[in-house]
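Notes from the 1:1 (GR / supervisor)

We went over the backlog. Supervisor wanted to see one worked example end to end before approving the batch request, so GR pasted a single chain during the call. The sequence is below; no edits were made to it. Supervisor asked that the structure be written out right there so they could see what the output format looks like.
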Amino acid sequence: MISALTRGATPSHFLERLRTVLDSDYVISGDRIDACFITEPRGRWHRRPAALARPANTAELARVVELCRESGVPMVIRGGGTGLVGGASMTDDDRELLISMDRMRSIRRVDVEDAAMTVEAGVTLATANHAAATYGLDVPLQLASGGSASVGGILATNAGGSTTMRYGTARRMVLGLEAVLADGRVLNSLSCLRKNNTGYDISGLLVGSEGTLGIITAATIALVPQPSQRATAWCAVESPEQALKLLHSCRHSLGENLSAFELIPNRALELVLEYLPGARNPLEERHPWYVLMDIDTAIEGNWLMPAVTRLLETELEAGQIRNAVIASSASKTDELWRLRDSISPAQKAAGASIKHDISVPVAAIPRMIDDTLPELERAVPGIRPCVFGHLGDGNLHFNLNRPLGWDDTAFLAREPLLNRIVYDRVLALGGSIAAEHGIGQLRREQLQQRADPIKLDLLGCIKRALDPQNLLNPGKLIPG
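Structure output shown during the call:
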């Protein structure tokens, strides 16, 4: 075995050996690495890798990993590049090899009778959904970044999205995985089985591990029937408390047909209307808060739309909502969801922001918002909060834009203070500092400071057992 390299640039002899494993066109170094492999949405991490490897299949990836193990070269794994916590970005170690999964994008099979499909890690969520739709099936996951987010990255971060309240996070849809381990061995547990109690849930362990325990190369995921009826409504409410009451009414009346329930402040809508060409307010007047909800069912008939209409009429008469509109067509549904999905890019266009992906018990959401916003205003007068997210599952994007007239650098210097205010409140309410985006580099220090010491010890034990050389995505998730 070649001894571990000293800290510094990855040497030429390693790249030469790498080019014997992969076609030389897919081993790229220096300035030849395209910026698309380095760019990430937050614009916080800019380091270039020593080299980029783009394996075409699991066997090639396994050989790359084995070579990295022999040479002591750390690996960073990149999927669609939509992650928000620096999990697929380089650290300050100049030896790191960036491995892109973009060439591994085959849909291996769709099992209609088992309502499952097996796809490779580089397949985007949108592509997987399109393939499933051919058979009248859906992937039970909806992300704003679905056109770019890859299955491997989605599973590595255990992504959630807007339908988590009904279908759960990504982990719940996984039936089996194929993954390359730190020593180059290939784990293959791909299966359509819904029941398999033959030991520890290794697939469940790898999902959400952010590439620190193994590299997911393919997955068998459970599918659901495509809906035959769908209703999408945009409702105006006075407060998060009223939105919570509306959620209770919808759950009681619509049951599991309620798929998404999003909370949106007027400030977010204003940002989107400014940012998105042709965007229109769904209602004539402005209101403090809005709810975007999706209700759908695979059961045939024409009963869903009347049921939703009756429910909203009742809520309007009772004063629980101020106004509402129900999408009259698929294009109108898309318009409403475009408003929701444009919040993050619209906020980015408004200047520097400090973002928090948090979750609290659903019942605590009004308190989280009402108690935290005044404290943030006292800490940074003029701060512009933009708090939105998945009310139905308790996940809020607690985002904060700089005050008008402030310099970006001056505002970002307040990040430790603002993080403390938000995270202290989250934990006091029994919540989590990382709901669906993961830990990555961004929240690693916060995890170290705030997680249960026993949990941290167990995370370290698992990491050392599966990756004793600490070569898989080092500097991410696992506190140092």
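Supervisor's comment: DSSP finds 17 helices and 19 strands in the chain.
Batch request approved.
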